[in-house]
Amino acid sequence: MEGILGMCLRWSLAVFPGVLMVGCGLTGTRSIAPIEETIPGRIVLEYSGSEVGFSPDSRFLAVSGVSSLDMYETGSFERIWTTRSEQLLADDWFRRVVFSPDVRTIAVGSSTDKVLLFDTRTGALLSVLRGEHGAFGSNYPSQGMMAWSPDGAVLAANAGYFSTVVWRMDSGDRFVIGHSDDDAVLSLAFSSEGTNLLVGSEKGVWFYALATLLSGASDIDSAEVGRLVPWQQGMESANWIIHSEFAPDTSMLASSWGEGSPGEYSVTIWETSTGEQVWRLDGLRGVWSPDGRRMASGTANDDGYLIVWDTAGWGELFTLGRYTSELEGLAWSPDGRYLASAARGEVIVWDIDR
């Protein structure tokens, strides 16, 4: 700390939940120093899980584990319902979770070829969507990404490694986009106006006109109907993809991957319109805040902590406590108040405003 402060002509102090941030006006660097072990606003949920997701109105938090799906109300964080996978699925388990834009429905990926739709308030099973090309929430963290169109009329999910399935909610019609064997699907997002589906893959970002997809054949070759913006710096050094996520305005994509030996992870930020690499940071996962102005990531070890970054200059804003095993799930609430993490079964909710 003395070495950092000694280099500065202008410096400032700021206190965040549980941390002291020292800002250096000369170098633009930041140093984080813990103040206390018990951090205000840290809520440990009673029921464990490996995936977390908030509803669009920030009123509900879904926690998905291998054998259960639990729904909580934010604020009190009381559990309002739970369902067990063995009651619904034979030799199957829950994985990804994503709420519909109107909050009424939650889509849950399974470890086989099914996506289950539940009533958000009651937990009643509404319907089961089926695919043909692999798991919608497999044991591989990068698989099973899902996204709703802004109007809730369409749900998209990546199935296995090399295909994306799109369903129309009104008719149940299913459309399958196939990718080549060297172009694994990593992430999904709809444009804000809902006219385009964006699919992040190992080769780049595919852009699909939704109207064209929904009016064509049920089995689609990505190269025939999509437009590819390739990555300018490839992903050759990536041994395995952990997580990939578009920014809220889809202008950038954050990909978290493993390199070299286990435990070596980094997050790369890409510009989706050009494929250019914007930034790179050490860590596990990279999750955008709802306004895109911050990003949360975890350190790549079992005794790690969360880091919140400023996406304007990619400096560290503050850190949040510690988790005791490898980070599996991370999500912001849409109002930006809460950050939920799941690390090998332990689910923690951080109140950022505290």
**Count of individual helical segments:** 3
- Describe the global form: globular
- CATH-defined architecture of the largest domain: 7 Propeller
CATH topology of the largest domain: Methylamine Dehydrogenase, Chain H
Main sheet overview = 5 strands, mixed
Structural class: mainly beta
Strand order of the largest sheet: 13-14-15-16-20
* Record field, number of beta strands: 32
Q: How far is the first residue's CA from the last residue's CA?
A: 26 Å
Roughly how many Å is the radius of gyration? 20 Å
Number of domains: 2
CATH homologous group name of the largest domain: YVTN repeat-like/Quinoprotein amine dehydrogenase
Uncertain stretches of 5 or more adjacent residues:
1-39, 137-142
Query: What share of the residues does DSSP label as strand, in percent?
Result: over 45%
State the share of residues found in helices, binned by percent: under 10%
Please report the first level of CATH classification, the CATH class of the largest domain. Answer: Mainly Beta
Overall pLDDT metric: 77
